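Issue 218. Parser rejects a valid record. Input:
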Amino acid sequence: MDSSKPKVIDEIFPYLRVYEDGTIERLHGTEIAPAGFDPRTGVSSKDVVLVPETGVSARLYRPNLPPKNKKLPLVVYFHGGGFFISSAGDPKYHHSMNNLVATADVIAVSVNYRLAPEHRLPAAYEDSWAALQWVASHSAGGGGGGGEAWVRDEVDFERVFLAGDSAGANIAHHLGLRIVGSGLAERMKLVGIVSVHPYFWGEDGNGLEAKDPVRKAMVDKWWQFVCPSGRGNDDPLINPFVDGAPRFKDLGCDRVLVCVAERDILRDIGWLYYETLVKSGWGGRAEIMETEGEDHVFHIFEVDSDKAQRLVTYVASFINQ
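Output the parser choked on:
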């Protein structure tokens, strides 16, 4: 054993280790695919710094040769990874975003928010909100002064969607609440939210998670690692059903699509999210899609599978209704 190597003081197995000297070692989600032209889909992408002070950036996507004078819907996407791994440049996310942009014919802004434990929550929410403000600065209602032509010139700001998987779906939910009364709603129209395998949780399991104590204990630790609020897994950021959480009826969009997977430990929570929204008095329209025989974010790990493509096609149809 190498006694000179710093001692591990915390570990999120099998993803990340924290050493006593402060070093963070990520074991997954560190690969980066270069932005550029994707010959398979015809989609182009590039990386843009949104907030120089914090380093928050995004990967922008545009489909092949959008017609002149045709404005496209905008998808602002938040990647998953438990708030502590992965990025917009992750090869799996990059491949998935190319597929979505080509299938749905949209402009996309895939946000690189800062990760825990270097930047514990609420940093990811604040970074994602800053990304929305950056987007809104390109609209006519926001002054039209934004400098990114793909967004300023090619986006229909009356057709904006938030989307994300896992932790990213959690972010989309909270931003969908925050946008109400913020002023951003006057600068762009949030039409809908796409919530894929949303990462919500709670101290007391009420679905599949209650039947799998080993996995439940693992996920319990994840939240405590990224959010030191002292409220544990009943913090309203992770448990939107707890007393005192923002009301579902205040969600600031017209439509929501929730996607769940049959074998996902978060499946029942996804269904509870959908049912709570429908019963909340919210004035919009909700849909839910369940993929049989699949587990959490299968569409990211198996981007080219038939079931992943069916999910992307469904999302594209939802956006273009």
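Fixed in the parser; the record now loads. The chain has a mean pLDDT of 94.
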